[in-house]
Structure formats: structure tokens, C-alpha cells
């Protein structure tokens, strides 16, 4: 705010004016060289217009016309000056109002210039005290007004007025409350600003009544700036008044309350404003009230209020908030609660249907809140249509004895700006509820089991879901309760129907331990206000201290509204103890017993582990039941484990309609050795069993099993074998108890090899203890699965060892070197199937040699002699006829004894085969023996040299360096030689 600019010198003319008779309108003729001194001014009748012309005779280039008038009282003089048409913006007239000093001299009260284009008329109002004044009109010959006729009219209105100079606090015009004062913003000379300051005194706290009117103006441009300040020029309120606000109606929306004391009203204008020189009227009144006393915008200047007493106030400060950049008013009130109870705030303001923001209310428990101090424990953002205080009335605020602060905030542009509000604070000690602040474990409100407390979400606090969370505005109410044993805990949580979208989030509700580890967490929607949703969840907690956390955010429909919370607990034996989410924290359960649990852990999934001690290997039965549910959706997932990473059973998805637990018969638990094992129960929020109580346990089946055996078979290395046409029998020694029900299923491999049970298919109809091998089984593997069932327990199956099925002999697998040769011999009658085993690796006997050659010859017709040729081959010998045939064809040349049981060396085999060939060829076959031996171990001196070389010559023996003539030939090798011979000599 500025003081008037430098005074303008007194303008005194040198030309005398003719005398104008008071009260008689006249046109003044110019008097040449008449004195322009104020002392000889023409008398001007107030309210009457006069005309005159600025001009002189002779060489004078300036003219001053003076008019005098008197006022007998204080008031406003308004003068109007107009002229003949002119153009341009250069100076046309200079006018001044002079007043006579005590010494008879003259001083300027005000003066200004009018431009040529203002010829249509200018009007100015000046407040003047009673006295003698002169109006001077001045012009120059170079100005466009020279020689032009002008019209001057001055009028006067008596009134209490501002007394200039009053542009400083120290020169302020004192005003009487209830009296109307007139004034104008007008500064003489080249000053472009004027501020009029009025001093008024309030005898007591009350409402400021401000009436401010002025002559009608058009447009919305600024006309005035109005302030109310203290003696240090600190503004209480500040307004910019537009030209079209001349009626002063705007003050009705700007209520201000001040305490007893001196105050200052500032009315400021600028030369560029349309109100410059316009008369205004102002009046200040006082209405006593129990109200705030500005400034009360800090904790230290808070108004102390009495509980139960209504106070009035308004948000109308001139101070600018550094954060928002707009005018914001903070009204602080301090009150003292003498007892614990519910803090009730009655806060009302003028009625409106608007939903625009009106106020923000905060209650703090500290006069110096910081980010590390829980200070603001209630917060409400009130809209215009909440004028009746219903929002705050439905808010529960629990307080303890002590001092508190209530903060009322509004800002320019908000509905509450400048409107009177009424505030009353009480504490009802009869209500049991939360005690704020209670947004931390250490400050939790005690909650007795079986009782309820009232609370509300209305605290201004920064909440975080994790240490990395940047935080958000919320109210977190924490309640502490204690369980003395493992218990089923039943919370209750209800609130009034908040309306709005039923699926919108209302609260976050969770239960934690004293380390803030969350056990159970729920998102509560608007539509869940009745609390019935909690009946869907069974909560089990071990003995200890527990905490209920209730949280809402300011955007929720329940913000500021009350809720009721409580917890009851019933001791529950044989119940899981969370957290049991790992094998290391598994809850033990005895064999044959059950333990209760529920899948409800926070995070949307709950893994429950239970340990049991398997006393011996065997089949165990899982027991698992839960309340009746319908449908086939998955309710739980269950599995038995040896360790955290080793499974005993596959995970079973238990359906909702499998609540009775009969399905466990389909999930036998095979324990391979005694030890500790684990039952794993998994649920999640997407499953039908979420939150439902289940019973889980395990018991050992009385069934004993043993691996079934298959007979008859032959063991070849680690593999059992049988040949087609064999009747296989499954033996079940070791199965019990007596009366166990056994079933059988024979399986055939899909190919000639198998490594797992998936490589087998069931043989249709093969469901008895015996099975006749078929052609389809050749070069396949056969197994049998035996299943035992004891009533009430899972069935258990055991697989036999695999049995390889070969075409003719158990001991001649397809991998054997001479497999195809032996099959040829069997199919051509060279060997017989009288034995299941061929024994291909056994040494060939001389008796068998006779039999094989006889059959290779086609079993020729031969009558054996009555008397045996060889003393060691009686007629009763198995190969008597074959040996006698061999001798008769000179295939053997020995006499006396044949030695049928002796093994045949490879060299003798060559001799037998060559002689057989001579017989077959029906006579001697010339063969030139090579001069050089083929084999290093069969020299020319060997008696069988020619026979061995013959075999090599005909491709019957391989071209190896050695022939091994003395090594006994095996049955398999012999069959190979015979097969080669048959191919060579068909």
C-alpha cells in the first residue's frame, strides 16, 4: 500500500475573474486582465452550471479562471467539466481545488488535467471538510481548449467523510461503528494511486459488518481493492471489487469475525480504474458473537474453546498459501478433554445443494506435528451439500484426556469461503470406541474378546504397504486382542450402508501378529456392510497377542462414517497353528488322529503342512473331509510328501462335492520306509474351499503286499524269459490279511522293450492268476499287476518283474548271436522243443552231433541193427538209431566205443561235416588241400587239416587267423555251421 505521491505546487492565476452571483446561473464574460487570484474568485453557486471561455487579449498566452464556494459541513463535492468538441489526447484543461490556509494563503486540495478528447465531460468527487474553497480552471493558447467554451458544475452532499491525507495507518480516518462515511479514490497531480484508511474499534469479539457502495459503473474491471488489517498492516481480509459490484451485495458472502481491538479498513484505487474520482460510501458495524478471533492461523494462536459451547467463524484470510498459491484460511481451536470418550464435532454452514468442496477439518493431538509424529487423527473434506454436519456427526473419534486442536480450512474459490460456520465440540465419555491415534502396533486400542468397539476412518495419515511404498492418505485403526490357547477366532465387522457402487472397496480388514506379519486379509466392499461375509471364513490362531487392522482411504464412501468391530474366540483342540507354510513349521498329527485347519492365509494362497511319523513301510490312508459343498469346482489341493521336494503321491485336486472324503480310497499312500512324512494342503482364494474348515489326518492300512512272481520262467542274466505256448501263473505269497481281495491284470509291452509301466497295455480278458502265452506275445514283454483291497482303505497294487517272450526257447533272446540260426534249426526239425531252454552255450556232444546230422539229412529211412555196433551205445540210448546211421554212412569211423556224451572239438566237427557232405554228394568229392595252411593253429600235419581247409574253402568257417581246432564247439555254434552248410548245399 502506497502513500500519496509528492504534493503539487499551488496553482495561482494572474487573471482576475468576474464575480458570479451566488444562486444565479449565468454565462461569465471574460474580463480582460482580471485577476486570476483565488482571493478575487467568482462566487460559484453549488448545483448550478456556469459557462466560460479560456482566452486573453493582447499577448498573454495563459488564462486562469477562479470560482469560489463555501461548505458549512463535511461532505462530498462533485464537480463536472465539459467543453466544445475537441480531438486528440493532449492537455486541454488543468483544474485544481484550493483551500485557504490559516495564514490566508492557498494550498492545493487536488488537481488534474483533462485531455482534448474528454470534452464531453469528466466528473470527480472529493471529500471536503467545512470551509472556503476555490476551483481553478487553467489553459494555454497552444492547447486545443483555447477559445473554446467550457461548462462547470459543482454539487455538494453533506456526509461523514474520509479526512485526507489518510493514506497511512498513522493518519487513518477514525470511524464510528454504524456510521456511513463517504470518500473517493483521487490523488492530485500526477499521482496514480490513492488509498483511504479508516480506523475502527471492536468493543468485543464479533462479526464485522461491511457496507460498501458507489455510483453505478459498467463492466467487470477492477474498481477498488479493499482490505481489513491490524495496526501492523497485516491483512485479515482482502477483496478486489469490480465496477459492476457498486451495490455492495458481494459483502453478504464475506463474513469476518474479529476479537476486541483496533482495526483498519483500506480502500484503494488507481487512476486507471473506472472508480477514480467516483464517490463511494462505506459503513462498518459490529455484531457481538462467541466466535473465533483472527489471527488464529497457527497452533500458538489457536482460540481456546469450551466444550459444549457453539462458536462462529469464517474462512476469509488475505494470506496466500505458499503451496497452492491461493488465499487460504486456517482457523485453529484448542480444547481440552477431561475424560476419555467419543469426540463429537457439530459443524454447520449455510445450506447448498452443490457438491463443491467447502471445508477441510483436521483434529490433531499435537501442537507441533511432524512427519514422524502421529498428529492428525481425523480428517474430513466437506462439500457444500454437507452443510448440516451429517458427515462429521457420523464420525467416531476416540480421545483420551488431554489437549487437542481442531483446524478448519477453506480457500478462495471454495464454497465455504467467506461464509459463517458454526462449530461446537463435545466429548461423550459413555461411548466405548477406538482411541486415536491407533495407527501402529504400539498404539493399538485394546479389544476385549466378546465385546465390540466403535470406530471410523477419518484420520489423516500416510500409510505404506511395504517399506518401498511411497505412501498414501488413509486411516489405519489397529485393535489388540489376546488368545490364551489355539482358538477359532470369529471377528465381527459392520457399518452403515454407504450407498454407491456395492462392489467398490470400502475397507481393508486384516489380522496380524505383533511383528505385523499378516495372517488373514480381506477387501471389504460397500455391499458387505452387514458383515455376513465373515461367515464364509473360519479363522484359527494360536495363543498370543493379535491385531485387527482396519483401513480406508479418503476416496472411500465409508470415509468418516462409523463402524463396529469385535472379536470372539473359542478354544479349539487338535487345530493347526499358523504359520505352518513350510515342512520346517509343519504341525504334527498322530497316526489315526485328525487335525482341523483352514486355507485362509493372506496373499491369496495358503499352504498348510502337517507332519506324521510312519512307523513302517506300507500303505497309508489319507483322511480329508470338509463342510458340504456342491459342484465340481476344485476346493483344495492335497499331497503327501517325503520332503519339501520329494513327493509320495501326486497332487490331488479335491472337488467341492468330495467333501465326505471317500475319494481318499483312490489315493493310496505308499510309504517305502519308516520315517517322517508330510501332508500338504493348499487352498487359494479362487478355490471353493477357501476359508472353510477341513479335517485332515492319516492312518496305516492293514494290507500287506508282496511282489508277485511269474512261473515257469527262465532267468537269463537279470531277465526272466518264457516261450510262446507256455501257461504263466502269478503267485501272491505274502499278501494279507486273511480275506484280502485280489485282482489280476496281465500286461503286454507295446514294443520289444519297456522301461516303465506306461510302456505296457492291458491284455484284454487276461484278469485271472494264469495266462496262456500267444503268438502276439512273441518278442514282447509280459507283466502282471496284482491289486489288493481291504475294506475302508485304498487299494494297493504290485507289479511283477518283466518276462521276455521268445518264439521257441527261453534262453535264446533276439540279441543272441545265433538267434536266427537256432530258429531255423527249430523250424526245420533239426532241434526239438521238448525243452524250454536250448542251452546254446553248452558244449555239443557226440550223440547230439549224430542226431543233428541225421535230421539235416532229412530223417532218412533206416533200420538200426539188432546188435549194437558200439559197446557204449546200447539200443536204449536216446540217439541209438542216429549213431548207428552215422556209422553206416562212414560219417564216423570209430570202432568199439562211440563216446556219445563226449564233447566235440571243432576239428572233429569239421571231419563229421565233411564226411556228411561226401555222403550227401553220393560219393567222394575231390578237394585239393592248399599247400599253405589257412589257419595258424591247423598245420598240414593235423589229422583234420584237409577237413578244416574244406570248411574254409566252402565258406563254412570264417577267415580268422586261428580255427581253435581243439576247443569244444557249443550247441549254438554247431547250429550256425549246420545252417551255413544247408545254405551252401541246399
Could you walk me through the main structural features you see in this protein, from its secondary elements to its overall organization?
This protein is mainly β and 986 residues long. Helix content is 7%, strand content 38%. Strands 49, 50, 52, 53, 55, 56 and 57 form a seven-stranded mixed beta sheet that branches. Strands 29, 31, 32, 34, 35 and 37 form a six-stranded mixed beta sheet that branches. Strand 34 (505-512) and strand 35 form a beta hairpin. Helix 2 (819-827) packs across helix 7 and helix 5 crosses helix 6. It is elongated, with a radius of gyration of 61 Å. It starts with 41 loop residues before the first strand and ends with a helix. Residues 1-34 and 371-375 have low confidence and may be disordered.
Shape: elongated
Which residues form runs of ≥5 with pLDDT under 50? Answer: 1-34, 371-375
Percent of residues in beta strands?
35-45%
Mean pLDDT: 89
What is the helical fraction, as a range of percent?
under 10%
Radius of gyration: 61 Å
What structural class results from the helix and strand content? mainly beta
Number of strands: 57
Please tally the helical runs, counting DSSP H or I stretches of 4 or more residues.
7
Sketch the major β-sheet. 7 strands, mixed
**Distance between the first and last residues' Cα:** 138 Å
Pick out its properties.
7-stranded mixed beta sheet, disordered N terminus, 38% strand, 7 helices, 6-stranded mixed beta sheet, 57 strands, 986 residues
Amino acid at each position: 500500500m502506497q502513500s500519496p505521491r509528492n504534493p503539487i505546487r499551488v496553482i495561482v492565476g494572474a487573471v482576475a475573474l468576474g464575480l458570479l452571483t451566488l444562486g444565479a446561473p449565468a454565462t461569465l464574460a471574460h474580463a480582460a486582465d482580471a485577476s486570476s487570484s483565488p482571493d478575487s474568485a467568482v462566487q460559484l453557486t453549488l448545483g448550478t452550471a456556469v459557462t466560460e471561455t479560456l482566452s486573453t487579449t493582447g499577448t498573454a498566452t495563459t488564462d486562469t479562471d477562479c470560482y469560489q464556494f463555501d461548505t458549512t459541513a463535511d461532505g462530498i463535492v462533485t464537480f463536472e467539466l465539459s467543453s466544445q468538441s475537441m480531438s486528440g489526447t493532449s492537455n486541454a484543461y488543468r483544474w485544481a481545488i484550493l483551500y485557504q490556509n490559516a495564514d490566508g494563503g492557498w494550498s492545493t486540495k487536488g488537481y488534474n488535467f483533462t485531455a482534448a478528447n474528454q470534452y464531453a465531460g469528466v466528473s470527480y468527487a472529493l471529500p471536503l471538510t467545512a470551509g472556503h474553497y476555490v476551483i481553478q480552471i487553467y489553459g494555454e493558447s497552444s492547447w486545443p481548449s483555447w477559445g473554446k467554451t467550457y461548462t462547470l458544475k459543482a454539487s455538494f452532499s453533506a456526509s461523514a467523510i474520509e479526512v485526507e491525507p489518510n493514506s497511512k495507518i498513522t493518519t487513518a480516518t477514525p470511524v464510528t461503528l454504524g456510521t456511513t462515511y463517504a470518500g473517493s479514490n483521487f490523488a492530485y497531480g500526477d499521482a496514480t494511486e490513492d488509498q483511504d484508511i479508516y480506523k475502527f474499534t471492536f468493543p468485543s469479539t464479533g462479526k464485522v459488518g461491511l457496507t460498501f457502495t458507489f455510483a453505478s459503473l459498467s463492466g467487470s474491471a477492477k474498481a477498488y481493492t479493499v482490505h481489513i488489517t491490524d495496526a501492523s498492516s497485516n491483512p485479515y481480509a482482502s477483496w478486489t471489487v469490480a465496477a459492476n459490484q457498486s451495490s455492495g451485495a458481494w459483502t453478504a458472502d464475506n463474513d469476518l469475525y474479529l476479537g476486541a481491538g483496533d482495526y483498519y479498513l483500506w480502500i484503494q484505487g488507481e487512476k486507471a480504474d473506472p472508480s477514480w474520482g467516483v464517490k463511494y460510501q462505506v459503513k462498518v458495524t459490529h455484531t457481538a458473537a462467541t466466535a473465533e478471533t483472527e489471527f488464529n492461523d497457527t497452533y500458538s494462536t489457536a482460540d481456546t474453546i469450551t466444550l459444549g459451547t457453539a462458536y462462529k467463524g469464517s474462512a476469509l484470510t488475505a494470506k496466500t498459501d505458499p503451496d497452492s498459491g491461493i488465499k487460504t484460511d486456517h482457523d485453529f481451536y484448542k480444547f481440552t478433554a477431561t475424560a476419555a470418550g467419543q469426540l463429537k464435532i457439530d459443524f454447520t454452514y449455510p445450506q447448498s445443494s452443490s457438491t463443491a468442496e467447502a471445508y477441510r477439518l483436521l483434529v490433531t493431538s499435537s501442537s507441533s506435528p511432524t512427519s514422524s509424529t502421529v498428529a492428525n487423527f481425523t480428517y474430513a473434506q466437506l462439500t457444500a451439500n454437507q452443510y448440516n454436519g451429517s458427515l462429521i456427526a457420523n464420525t467416531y473419534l476416540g480421545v483420551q484426556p488431554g489437549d487437542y486442536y481442531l483446524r478448519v480450512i477453506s480457500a478462495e474459490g471454495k464454497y465455504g469461503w467467506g461464509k459463517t460456520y458454526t462449530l461446537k465440540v463435545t466429548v461423550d465419555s459413555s461411548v466405548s470406541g477406538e482411541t486415536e491415534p491407533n495407527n501402529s502396533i504400539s498404539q493399538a486400542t485394546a479389544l476385549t474378546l466378546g465385546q465390540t468397539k466403535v470406530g471410523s476412518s477419518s484420520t489423516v495419515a500416510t500409510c505404506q504397504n511395504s517399506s518401498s511404498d511411497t505412501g498414501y492418505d488413509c486411516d489405519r485403526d489397529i485393535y489388540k486382542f489376546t488368545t490364551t490357547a489355539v482358538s477359532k477366532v470369529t471377528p465381527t465387522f459392520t457399518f452403515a450402508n454407504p450407498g454407491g457402487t456395492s462392489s467398490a472397496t470400502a475397507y481393508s480388514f486384516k489380522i496380524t501378529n505383533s511383528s505385523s506379519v499378516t495372517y488373514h486379509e480381506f477387501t471389504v466392499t460397500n455391499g458387505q456392510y452387514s458383515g455376513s461375509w465373515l461367515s464364509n471364513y473360519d479363522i484359527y490362531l494360536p495363543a498370543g497377542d493379535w491385531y485387527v487392522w482396519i483401513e480406508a482411504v479418503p476416496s472411500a464412501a465409508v470415509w468418516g462414517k462409523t463402524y463396529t468391530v469385535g472379536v470372539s474366540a473359542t478354544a479349539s483342540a487338535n487345530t493347526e497353528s499358523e504359520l505352518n507354510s513350510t515342512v520346517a513349521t509343519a504341525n504334527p498329527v498322530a497316526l489315526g488322529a485328525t487335525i482341523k485347519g483352514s486355507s485362509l492365509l493372506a496373499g491369496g494362497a495358503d499352504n498348510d503342512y502337517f507332519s506324521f511319523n510312519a512307523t513302517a513301510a506300507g500303505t497309508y490312508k489319507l483322511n480329508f473331509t470338509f463342510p458340504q459343498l456342491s459342484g465340481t469346482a476344485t476346493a483344495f489341493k492335497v499331497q503327501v510328501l517325503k520332503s519339501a521336494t520329494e513327493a509320495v503321491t501326486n497332487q490331488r485336486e479335491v472337488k467341492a462335492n468330495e467333501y465326505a472324503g471317500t475319494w481318499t480310497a483312490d489315493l493310496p499312500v505308499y510309504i517305502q520306509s519308516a520315517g517322517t512324512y508330510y501332508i500338504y494342503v493348499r487352498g487359494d482364494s479362487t478355490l471353493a474351499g477357501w476359508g472353510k474348515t477341513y479335517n485332515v489326518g492319516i492312518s496305516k492300512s492293514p494290507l500287506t503286499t508282496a511282489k508277485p512272481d511269474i512261473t515257469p520262467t527262465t532267468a537269463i542274466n537279470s531277465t526272466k524269459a518264457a516261450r510262446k505256448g507256455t501257461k504263466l501263473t502269478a503267485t501272491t505269497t505274502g499278501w494279507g490279511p486273511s480275506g484280502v481281495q485280489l485282482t489280476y491284470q496281465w500286461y503286454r509291452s507295446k514294443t520289444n522293450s519297456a522301461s516303465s509301466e506306461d510302456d505296457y497295455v492291458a491284455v484284454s480278458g487276461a484278469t485271472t492268476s494264469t495266462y496262456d502265452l500267444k503268438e502276439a506275445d512273441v518278442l514282447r514283454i509280459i507283466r502282471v499287476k496284482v491289486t489288493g483291497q481291504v475294506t475302508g482303505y485304498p487299494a494297493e497294487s504290485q507289479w511283477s518283474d518283466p518276462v521276455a517272450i521268445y518264439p521257441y526257447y527261453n534262453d535264446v533272446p533276439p540279441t543272441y548271436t545265433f538267434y536266427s540260426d537256432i530258429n531255423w534249426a527249430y523250424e526245420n526239425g533239426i532241434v526239438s522243443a521238448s525243452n524250454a531252454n536250448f542251452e546254446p552255450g553248452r558244449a555239443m556232444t557226440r550223440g547230439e552231433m549224430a542226431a543233428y546230422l541225421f535230421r539235416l539229412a532229412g530223417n532218412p529211412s533206416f533200420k538200426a541193427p539188432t546188435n549194437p555196433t558200439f559197446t557204449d551205445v546200447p539200443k536204449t540210448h536216446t540217439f541209438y538209431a542216429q549213431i548207428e546211421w552215422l556209422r553206416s554212412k562212414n560219417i564216423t569211423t570209430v570202432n568199439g566205443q562211440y563216446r556219445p556224451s563226449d564233447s566235440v572239438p571243432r576239428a572233429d566237427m569239421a571231419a563229421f561235416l565233411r564226411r556228411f557232405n561226401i555222403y550227401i554228394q553220393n560219393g567222394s568229392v575231390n578237394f585239393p588241400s592248399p599247400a599253405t595252411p589257412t589257419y595258424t593253429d591247423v598245420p598240414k600235419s593235423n589229422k583234420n587239416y584237409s577237413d578244416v581247409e574244406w570248411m574254409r574253402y566252402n565258406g563254412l568257417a570264417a577267415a580268422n587267423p586261428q580255427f581253435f581246432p581243439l576247443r569244444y564247439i557249443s550247441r549254438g555254434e554247431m547250429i550256425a555251421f549246420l545252417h551255413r552248410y544247408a545254405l551252401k548245399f541246399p
